[in-house]
Structure prediction request, 341 residues.
Amino acid sequence: RKRVVSGVQPTGSIHLGNYLGAIKNWVALQDTYETLFFIVDLHAITLPYDPQELRKATRDTAALYLACGVDISKASVFVQSHVRAHVDLMWLLSSSTPIGWLQKMTQFKEKSRKEGGENASVSLLTYPVLMAADILLYKSDFVPVGEDQKQHLELARDLAQRVNNLYGGRKWKKLGGRGGSIFKIPEPLIPQVGARVMSLTDGRSKMSKSAPSDQSRINLLDSKDLIADKIKRCKTDSFVGLEYDNAERPECNNLLSVYQIVSGKTKDEVMEECKDMSWGTFKPLLTDAVVEHLSPIQVRYQEITAESAYLDKVLTEGADKATEIAEVTIRNLKQAMGFYI
Ligand code: TYM
Prediction:
């Protein structure tokens, strides 16, 4: 069976962008593919953070995966730092990664600038190598992510290719290996709609955990009243009617897209229903659809977090399963790289 992996950072609260761009799509893939979903705690320490919060957010994020419909009878769920091979592989891959590849990453440039340039941590620079390790470790075929991770996926593909060329094939065979390629080249899976959910307060920037205003995002655990309030106050425009794909109306396109996904309707159905609506009519409709979609997730979340031993068991089993797969990859790569194993 083909394999799918993905992860979310346990920083701040999970929002509608994370859900519509990634987690919701994971759930759709678990019936067809072998799936591994992890909480990337090692990525969460690349920016200044609060240790108390990391610990809590790691558990909460795992609980949300399950609440969103990740089914542990089909998928493995685990914490990245519980599987040591992620860091092992990262080091091995680092030696084949040109610094230039990392320095030109958009997210690195943005985040390091915010950290004051030279003060940014080394791990912020090497972040994409760890992400490549997360993916290549499991010989993943597909990686379901939002649009903002596309460049990191590209790097993972380039790195896989580079290591295959440097150490795979005949060279590996001479060292007693099976030959051929060491890594599979992974493909990103980016959804048609929802790949880039925008901020509620500015339709030209993406919804993000780190935006200072909580009004800019809908968190999966927001109450009904809070969601209603955020949508009521969100940015709109003064055009007549509603429409998709008008570059002058990014907010309109975003809100229609969110409505489309949470209501389970098609683009045509949404247009048919909403094209003549005013914002005053559309906003309550959108609020109800979002609340209706999120409330079963919130109920399940409460149930899961009420029973803490259950979550620990899920994470231990997930880590065991992942470790089994990961160790084979590490062994192969070490052999190919000439380590005395
Ligand atoms: P993170 O934690 O920033 O985001 C988790 C997932 O949510 C998607 N996403 C969005 N999708 C649509 N609209 C938005 N506004 C939005 N904001 C975030 C992201 O694209 C992502 O899919 N580096 C990754 C985590 C990671 C990873 C991996 C992912 C580490 N290792 C291996 C896949 C495979 C990150 O920081 O995601």
About this structure: The two ends are 29 Å apart (CA to CA).
